[in-house]
Amino acid sequence: MNDLLRYQGLYGEQQLPMVSDFIHLEPLQDRSKIYAWEIEEHIHTDLVQLFLISSGSGTLYSEKQEVSLNAPCTVTVPANVLHGFHFEPHITGHVMTLSVSFYDTLLPNKPDLTRQLGQLACISFTERPERFAEFDYWKDKIQQEIFDNAPEKLLALKTYFEMLYLELYREKFRTRTADLLTNNRNLAYFQQFQELIRQHAQDLPSIKTFAKKLGITQTHLNRVCHTVAGTSALKVVQEFTIAEAKKYLLNTSYSIAEVAYFLNFNDPAYFSRLFKNRVGVAPGEFRKG
Question: Does the keyword Transcription regulation apply (predicted)?
């Protein structure tokens, strides 16, 4: 598939704010109504989403598969997974969107849990609406925290999201879920590539080595990345590195040279040039806000 509809930001948007931990919450109906309740199949390259559908119905589409959505229900959408929707008018609910860099900080010592939740899936609560109300509770806590400026805001948000995803994980074992697995080889390879990047974050190997681990050629890996992300394999790795750099710059007092060395750059000047080229501002300016 060479014509993937991809968004760097939310549906219909190609930009995200210059932050390392992007968290966004909006009513489901707000954006859906703009697009006449039809959301074309697309991928988000670096975003994870959770839909909480409170009332109404619709259909989830992915690679010629479809699942009926009847409220109350939840839909988990990992990064780089094709998904689209048809919503009936007057549907209500909320969509939570997280950057992959923030999502990866949740429950870091529970890889089985995050792997289970890293699937395009729908969980129905039609037989237990009172259980869905618990997810609404955590959503309300998150919404309040987003708009407040209380101390340790990020810590509170992380805690609330961890509780919400933990409850989702438990629910997958209590009730029937509809999981939609990708049949698209390009998407599958790209997802595996991103997982390898995360696994080798402290000592990133060459693109040739990544390709070998995937069982494909370097040329094939570059073709996969161009198809899914619209860029080369090297730039996919660089995007990951820049995301890590943003975390250090915003959340620590390390010097720019120290951040560069932590990320295995031998030349801090080269790191600064790469950062400015990818982000648009120098590391020092980014840190200042």
Answer: yes
What does the DSSP 8-state code read for residue 167? H
Radius of gyration of the chain (CA): 19
Q: Which runs of consecutive H residues, i.e. helices, occur in 218-282? A: 218-229, 233-251, 256-262, 268-279
Distance CA 84, CA 104 (A): 24
24-39 pLDDT, tens digit each:
999 999 999 999 999 9
CB 142 within 8 A of CB 96: yes
**What CATH code is assigned to 6-180?**
2.60.120.280
Which residues, including other chains, have CB under 8 Å from residue 217's CB and lie 6 or more apart? 211
Domain 185-288, CATH class in plain words: mainly alpha
Question: pTM above the 0.85 mark?
Answer: no
Asked if residues 179 and 187 have their Cβ atoms less than 8 Å apart, the reply is no
Least confident range from 41-55, 174-188, 265-279: namely 174-188
- Residue 243: CB atoms within 10 Å: 18
Give the pLDDT confidence of 66-97 residue by residue, as tens digits.
999 999 999 999 888 889 999 999 999 999 99
Q: Are 74 and 52 in contact (CB under 8 A)?
A: yes
Cα end-to-end span (Å), the chain: 39
Residues of the chain with CATH 1.10.10.60: 185-288
Return residue ranges of the chain for CATH 2.60.120.280: 6-180
